[in-house]
Amino acid sequence: MKLPWLHSLFARLMLILIVGIMIVLAVSFTLFVGERERLGRAALFESVAQEIATKVEVLDRLSTAEREQWIDQLGRRRLRLALRQPSEPLRPLPDGHPLPAALRAAMPERTSAAYAHERPGMKHPIIIAVVHLADGTPLQVRLPGIPPGPHLRNPEPARLFAALAALIGGVGLLTWFAVRLATRPLSRMAEAARALGEDPERAPMDIRGPTEVSQAAQAFNQMQQRMREHVSERTRILAAISHDLQTPITRLRLRAELLDDEPLRTRVQADLDSMQALIKEGLVYARSLDDAAPAQAVDVDSLLEALREDALDMGWKISLSGSVGVPVLARPTAVRRALWNLIENGAKFGGAVEIQVSSTPQMIEIRIRDHGPGLPESELEKVFEPFYRLETSRNRDTGGTGLGLAIARNLLRRQQGQVHLHNHPAGGLEAVVVLPRKPGSSAA
């Protein structure tokens, strides 16, 4: 099962680093506890061996009679001393026990051994060390309060977990900053790519940063420059073609006037009108991709009222409700052309047109609804494609050139706006236009 929050690179890097750090901390903690116990036992038995060595040195300087008098005094602390060999059954301490090694290190010139004495009813055996004095007398040293494997008190769980939580939290915070710093250039590039689709004339990306980020930003800026040049070149080519075609179309019109056959002359003139309209619309579509006019304050309420009056003058049924109230920063010619194309499309295919306006602090919304048959769901996006028309008859009176909606969407997107179509629940097709109040804030 894929987790939706793991789709971003930021989340994946955070998960990898946090899990990796937690595993390292767990292994380190396990090793620390084991090493702590080993070092603690070694330190304990080293101190015991040093204490035994000190007492052996003292006993070496005493006579036999004095040893008997002082033996109990010297063993009053944690050691019990006796000047004889042990009589109990003993077993040598296992290999690796720290006491024999500590005795050899503290008294390398003396013979020493360490044993364990098992006693019924006792939790652990007693450790017994045997060291020979300088005259060969055996010294028996008992350690009744020290088990063979001394228990070291583990830290309190609450304090341990608090320390681990603080460590993980600190490392997690540093990881968050590091991952965010590493992925921020990718986020900037993704945002620049989205903005480029809406406005090829946007400012180039900032190329400051690490070498890889700087190189990627430079490549992105070069791509943006080439796209601008390509769009401008295409617009110039279409403008030149449109201009050059005007002359032969004009000559054809003059020659059509010389035709004696009235029906034929009418059909030729209609074909020439269609050709000229198609050339004109194609040029408008190309320019809609390269519209770099500056944004200015647009009174949307007055603009819609003017469009309504123009539509009424053409005999269309149209109504307008709602208002924006304040001007909006936009390109007035582009907004007017886009809205007119949508109104014309609704009047042509849906009869009566209703325009409803609403606004929020961030954007304005214009709904243009007709009362026609609507569109199949599969066609709602296709109609925005250039030269796409639903009518198979190719009738220019109703089908048009297939560029009106494509031009409207291009003009709106160039100013961070958007338009989409849906079938109204009460019937008809509704176009929803969304424009940001300020340029640069993309509309959803």
* Unreliable runs: 392-396
Q: Which structural class do the helices and strands define?
A: alpha+beta
- In this structure, how is the largest beta sheet organized? 5 strands, antiparallel
- The rounded distance between the terminal residues' Cα atoms is 30 Å
From the alpha-carbon coordinates, what is the Rg to the nearest angstrom?
Answer: 47 Å
CATH superfamily of the domain at 294-436: Histidine kinase-like ATPase, C-terminal domain
Highest-level CATH class of the domain at 294-436: Alpha Beta
Share of residues in strands: 5-15%
Q: Write down the overall geometry.
A: rod-shaped
| Helix run count | 9
Give the helix/strand layout:
Layout: H1 9-60, H2 64-74, E1 80-82, E2 91-92, H3 98-106, E3 112-117, E4 126-132, E5 138-143, H4 157-198, H5 211-257, H6 262-288, E6 296-298, H7 300-313, E7 318-321, E8 328-330, H8 332-350, E9 353-359, E10 363-370, H9 404-413, E11 418-423, E12 429-436
Parallel strand pairs: 7-9
Antiparallel strand pairs: 1-5, 2-3, 3-4, 4-5, 6-8, 9-10, 10-12, 11-12
Helix pairs in contact: 1-3, 1-4, 4-5, 5-6, 6-9, 7-8, 8-9
